[in-house]
Amino acid sequence: xxxxxxxxxxxxxxxxxxxxxxASIRFDRRMYRQDxxxxxxxxxxxxxxxxxxxxxxxxxxxxxxxxLNDIESGRLEIDLTCxxxxxxxxxxxxxxxxxxGKRLHTARSRNDQVALDIRLTLRAWTNxxxxxxxxxxxxxxxxxxxxxxxxxxxxxxxxxxxxxxxGHHLMAYxxxxxxxxxxxxxxxxxxxxxxxxxxxxxxTTFPIDRxxxxxxxxxxxxxxxxxxxxxxxxxxxxxxxxxxLIMTHLSRFSEEIILWSSWEFKFVELDDAYSTGSSIMxxxxxxxxxELTRGKAGRVTGNLVTLLTMLKGLPLAYNKDMQEDKExxxxxxxTVKLALTVFSPMLETMRVNTENMRSAAAKGFINAxxxxxxxxxxxxxxxxxxxxxxSLVAYLINANKTLESAGLDDYKQFSDLFENDVYEAINLDxxxxxxxxxxxxxxEQVAAQIESVRSQLTSLxxx
Length: 463
Ligand code: ARG
Description:
Layout: H1 16-22, H2 25-28, H3 32-48, H4 54-72, H5 85-97, H6 110-146, E1 151-156, E2 159-165, H7 166-191, E3 193-194, H8 210-216, E4 221-222, H9 226-231, H10 234-260, E5 268-269, H11 288-312, H12 325-348, E6 351-352, H13 354-361, H14 368-377, H15 382-398, H16 408-412, H17 422-425, H18 428-434, H19 443-461
Parallel strand pairs: 3-4
Antiparallel strand pairs: 1-2, 5-6
Helix pairs in contact: 3-4, 3-6, 3-8, 4-5, 6-7, 6-12, 6-19, 7-10, 7-19, 10-11, 10-12, 11-12, 14-15
The structure holds arginine.
Arginine binds at residues 24, 28, 84, 110-111, 114, 318, 320, 322-323.
């Protein structure tokens, strides 16, 4: 069964190792459905334009449908000794319907066929990723809503900086993932152009109608340059980049979850279903899922670099190097989908220790900015107020006191403007409540963010 599609010119079979090296069926078999659907659309177009007889087209399409059903139901196994999925499908068709099957490849090349198959495959998988991202964002919004007034220290340089709410911190990630969805949709626009009909590179002598296949396969249009049609893998790069950024976001989030679940922080505790133990240290509960996510971000970035490097030296049009696109981009999708699938429930079941967060916020003078702002309220220029509070903090550190435990006499040593109401100004709840500017950390602003993100999600899902 397994003759090369290109047998004819050759007097010898391909060397066995060279054959293995050349074959792509191990990975491109995952595109069997897209390859069959592309062929069905092509066969229908060939009949509509009178290039093949209607009867033949019907026979071909029925044959292809049969193959699809049989693969999906497990009755037909893809023969891994074939060169690629295109070879397998075409040979299986001819085995089933005889010589009529040999008419399918009229006005087509594997070059435009594979370009088509990848686009169809990545389009479907991108929609899966978007769905998983929507789920994750919903989990984030629910958690942020629950903890919209839970005070924790916000950090810069990993040093306690200013009080924030945990809800606000979580929502920062919601915005990242919303942008990720935007990037995927944007890449989909450029992906959704049909290369079918580009032929090997120059188009075809047959009077095909490329708009018929483009429409049948759900593309917005057909590409306007056949050479670009078979050479373009920009969409792979764009998607690989969007996926690498998703993993980067998940990785940053993971890093925080790893820190927060350490004994040093104890801000959160991961559910047992999303933690692992140690083979020697009985007390250990390790955040392996988060660690793996951080680790796997590396390979997804690697895939992007693989694709860019593979493309950078390629002359037009198709070159076999391009076969290397699939393993890289497929791996990015597999990794991101898996990561999102476990990350959402891990986050959802994560317990939050609001008391520890709050007591961490009570240390480290994270209300010093508010103390300076208080003096500004009394008429001082900010830079002068900043200096006064800086000296006050240095003094209190020495005296082993906090802004809360210092007496008014301590304050007065640094400025006469301090009065009893300073304690209200440095109260952590007030510090958070007063950050009420657009995008600020106060509970009302967090609620507004959640509402905005949720409504963006609704408009996505009703799109
Ligand atoms: N397996 C090839 C790929 O993935 C399919 C296209 C082959 N075309 C060719 N002329 N050899 O790129």
